[in-house]
Design goal:
Distance between the termini of chain A: 66 Å
Number of helices of chain B: 15
Shape of chain A: globular
Low-confidence stretches of chain A: none
Number of strands of chain B: 0
Oligomer: heterodimer
Structural class of chain B: mainly alpha
Distance between the termini of chain B: 13 Å
Mean pLDDT of chain A: 89
Mean pLDDT of chain B: 84
Radius of gyration of chain A: 20 Å
CATH topology of chain A: Rossmann fold
Helix content of chain B: over 70%
CATH architecture of chain B: Orthogonal Bundle
Number of domains of chain B: 1
Order of helices and strands of chain A: EEEHEEHEHHHEHEHEEHHEEH
């Protein structure tokens, strides 16, 4: 299945959040959406998942999918993993299949949940209440919930935001493996640019409510892009293997610089 | 390091890899079955115990050999059994209604009582008594419950209309409900102010809640209502469980939360209005029942819904037994008892829960 985002637009009231966004995401590939804070990354993911009424269309293999049929092909994981429910990890993951669960949970469904918990290495938490887990552990639980129904399209909003550096790399590697093995379309947003650079097959840069550029990670990560989109002065370094790395040197904002140069950011009460 | 913390660390290290979901579910079904047995026991106690001095042995004898003594037969089959059944069905309905409201509004305080439905019914009943409609010979028997039902539905309609403007968000529904509690309580106070001494007595007695007016006809109405609405909602148990994750997560799982809230609210309103119309404002069961059920079985609604019914039914029948025992010749008003016993018990549960988390 191929996902084609075609001229998608969205406004909150009169404030435009997205204008004329178009790009393609292919099966077996990770398409990462990056951009500064408030660029509209989350909104774009919600439009793709049809959780927002938007302008333009999103085609799945050249077809528009009705909202009620969306859960059959797609898993969407939101950034927020807060959850107050008195449910254990197993039950939370089971809910990933809520549209197809029979009243009595079948052996196959139990096996699916056990399998995905094992895959993510969180089977030992199966009977723990979700509220007892740390933010990072909860994030893994919701990733498991997204994966349990083996979706054709996986949409993840900042799947690594609560994880430490080690687990960020580990999880993205895992998502990449799943994407390749299952041949699903994975679209996600990432804040950590080094991770995005290293593991994305395609990168879509959003800036000023629209697409700044799209292409391979190598093509998109340039000093110019980092200056224009993120307003930072950065060097793109190449290691011996030819892999790119980002070294951020300083912010490019004049106001920010003036603020920092001033003797004290917080004036005294004299 | 406390033993509990040590145990947690050890559990983390070894992991509970033997978690067996099938066994875990089977255990929950067993607990519900045990609860049903308990309800049956309470029901028999309710039938056997009397506020008057009737020897329980005589009642048991009449249950085993119906028709032996005509007066006893009437007492047992037309008074005591209907009261016991009404306690079971209304208790289950209040527990059920509370559970659904708490789940769909994602608010532990939601219940027919806190959302103004009982207050609406109370005003409806008071209005019928003050205007003297309840004393009318024709339709008299059904005028007070009818008026209570109507105003309970009006309260629901009020919440519904306000919520409609805001797209059935949970917060708006809870706030609108709380507003209506004060509104209808003020109207009821006005009725009491205007009432004749006889009507005032009637209003006060009605607000206590009472099962004594139960007959087979009332039971049939409440039972049919309960059965239909229970089946309609229970089919959607998985969706309700997913709604516990929060609206945005449920929406991402393909659930139209606002539409579910809309039709379930209407269904639950009909059921509560019916129960309140017949037995009055029996407080607190709608909050305590689901909370006890949740503490025992967690929030998988396939288990929570039946368990809330079981807890509600058990609490109300138990309260009915107690109201006869402590009344010493008269039946102590059951609505007072459920709140008086319910609140301290509720506090105990809350404190106990807090300790377990900390």
């Amino acid at each position: 299945m191929k996902v084609r985002v075609d001229s998608v637009g969205f406004s909150y009231g009169d404030t435009p959040v997205l204008k004329d966004v178009s790009f393609e995401a292919l099966p077996g590939e990770i398409t990462t959406i990056i951009g500064a804070n408030g660029a509209g990354k989350t909104t774009l993911l919600k439009c793709i998942a049809d959780l927002h009424k938007h302008r333009g269309n999103v085609y799945f293999d050249d077809q528009v999918v009705a909202r009620k049929d969306m859960p059959k092909i797609m898993s969407y994981m939101e950034q927020n993993t807060d959850c107050e429910a008195e449910l254990n990890v197993f039950e939370i993951v089971l809910l990933g299949m809520v549209q197809s669960l029979s009243f009595y949970v079948s052996e196959q469904d139990v096996e699916k949940v056990t399998g995905v918990l094992r895959l993510l290495g969180i089977e030992k938490y199966a009977d723990r209440k979700i509220g007892e887990l740390s933010g990072g552990q909860r994030q893994l639980v919701f990733i498991a919930q997204a994966l349990v129904k083996d979706p054709k399209v996986l949409v993840l909003d900042e799947p690594t935001s609560a994880l430490d550096l080690y687990h960020q790399f580990k999880l993205i590697k895992f998502i990449r493996k799943v994407t390749k093995e299952r041949g699903c379309v994975t679209i996600m947003t990432l804040h950590h640019l080094d991770v995005a650079l290293k593991y994305s097959d395609r990168v879509v840069v959003i800036s000023e409510n629209t697409v700044y550029g799209e292409g391979s990670a190598d093509e998109m990560f340039t000093e110019k892009m980092l200056a224009e989109v993120y307003r930072v002065k950065a060097d793109i370094l190449k290691d011996a293997k030819g892999n790119k790395h980002i070294q951020v040197l300083e912010p490019l904002d004049e106001e920010y610089e003036e603020e920092m140069d001033a003797e004290s950011v917080f004036p005294s009460e004299e | 390091m406390s033993d509990k913390e040590k145990k947690k660390l050890v559990d983390d290290a070894i992991g509970s890899q033997n978690f067996n979901y099938t066994q875990y579910s089977a255990k929950k079904y067993m607990i519900i079955a045990a609860g049903i047995v308990l309800c049956v026991v309470f029901f028999f106690l309710d039938v056997v115990f009397s506020s008057t001095y009737i020897d329980p042995a005589v009642i048991i004898d009449n249950l085993l050999h119906p028709g032996r003594d005509d007066i006893m037969h009437i007492i047992v089959f037309d008074i005591k059994i209907p009261v016991g059944l009404m306690a079971l069905i209304c208790g289950a309905s209040f527990g059920f209604a509370g559970a659904i409201m708490q789940t769909m509004l994602n608010n532990p305080l939601a219940s027919p009582y806190t959302l103004g439905i009982s207050a609406g019914a109370g005003f409806g009943a008071a209005l019928a008594m003050v205007t003297g409609l309840g004393g009318m010979a024709v339709l008299g028997e059904y005028l007070i419950p009818g008026s209570a039902f109507l105003f309970a539905l009006l309260a629901c309609g009020g919440i519904f209309l306000v919520a409609k403007v805001k797209g059935f968000s949970a917060d708006i529904m809870v706030l609108a409900g709380i507003g209506l509690v004060f509104f209808f309580q003020a109207l009821q106070a006005l009725m009491q102010y205007l009432a004749s001494p006889e009507a005032l007595q009637g209003i006060v007695f009605w607000t206590f809640g009472s099962l004594t007016g139960s007959d087979w006809e009332n039971i049939l109405i409440v039972l049919v209502m309960f059965a239909i609405i229970f089946l309609l909602i229970y089919r959607k148990a998985w969706f309700l469980t997913a709604m516990k994750l929060g609206d945005s997560k449920a929406a991402a799982l393909g659930i139209d939360t606002n539409s579910i809230r809309k039709w379930m609210f209407v269904a639950i309103s009909l059921l509560t209005a019916t129960c309140v119309a017949f037995v009055g404002c029996i407080g607190f069961i709608g909050i305590v029942g689901p909370h006890v059920a949740r503490m025992i079985l967690g929030e998988d609604q396939r288990f929570l819904i039946p368990m809330s019914c079981v807890c509600g039914a058990a609490i109300l029948t138990m309260a009915d037994v107690a109201s006869k025992v402590i009344g010493n010749g008269v039946i102590f008003p059951i609505g007072i008892l459920t709140s008086l016993v319910g609140v301290p018990f509720f506090f105990y549960l809350l404190l106990k829960k807090k300790k377990a988390v900390a």
